[in-house]
């Protein structure tokens, strides 16, 4: 009879990892190799029930950041024998309705983002009343515990912003433009506030319509043309970094463009010096750990974090680090 043991190790400063190993009548090493092969081929490596987990995020259409989150979640779901359901809506009330729909389906676990927490509070409470465990991910770290979630997985947005402020200081910047692409997102406000807290220079917030890239580009371009003292542009998502670069070029500005989040395009532009630095919160890890922690809770009653967020970032990525991470960004896992 096969026996399974699960070891979970967490390093808050940089990476969280989960490794399944065990032994069987055929020998520990051979059993482990067999499980690794099964995982690589998309088959489950556990014999627990076929639970259903739903992830509901505040993503808008076409946001590649969430493709990376999903990639991690789906990999963990294959490993853990989970039926994984994903839905999203950038309108908070619609997102809450998607949570309600998952409750009505009687899923076994819910993963949800709290970018606009007030709109999600009642839906999360309904899930918990129905006995469905909830893990929050990416946004809403301050509200997660109060809402009764098992754990929150992501980066502390204020700390991430402070890290950007420190990096800008080290680069000798004097005035930064912080570009917010989703009004009402508490995490975005926290990022820019964190930048302002630690940055010795001046920070100006610019609100743009993130669903309209031409509008984003023209708004940044106009601001750079009007204020030549801006020497740094900070975007809050990887898809907006390249748009900011185009705006900078058209405006004839010499400002450095930096960004939150990482993808293949950002890695390439870090390598060639088009971008100064990026702040990585490891979205693949957020998706992977959210599914895996729900599985651990269902299987073994495990809860991680001790009431505090399980941090996946921030990590400052510069030209040197981007070169090493390029192969991971190209496959869509960083």
How would you characterize the overall build of this protein?
The chain is an alpha/beta fold and 334 residues long. Helix content is 46%, strand content 20%. It is built from twelve helices and 14 strands. Strands 4-3-5-6-7-13 form a six-stranded parallel sheet, with helices on both faces. It has a six-stranded mixed sheet with strand order 9-8-10-11-12-14, sandwiched between helices. The chain has a two-stranded antiparallel ribbon with strand order 1-2. The longest helix has 18 residues. It is globular. The two termini are 38 Å apart. The N terminus is likely disordered.
Quickly describe the structure.
With 334 residues, the chain is α/β, with parallel strands linked by helices. Helix content is 46%, strand content 20%.
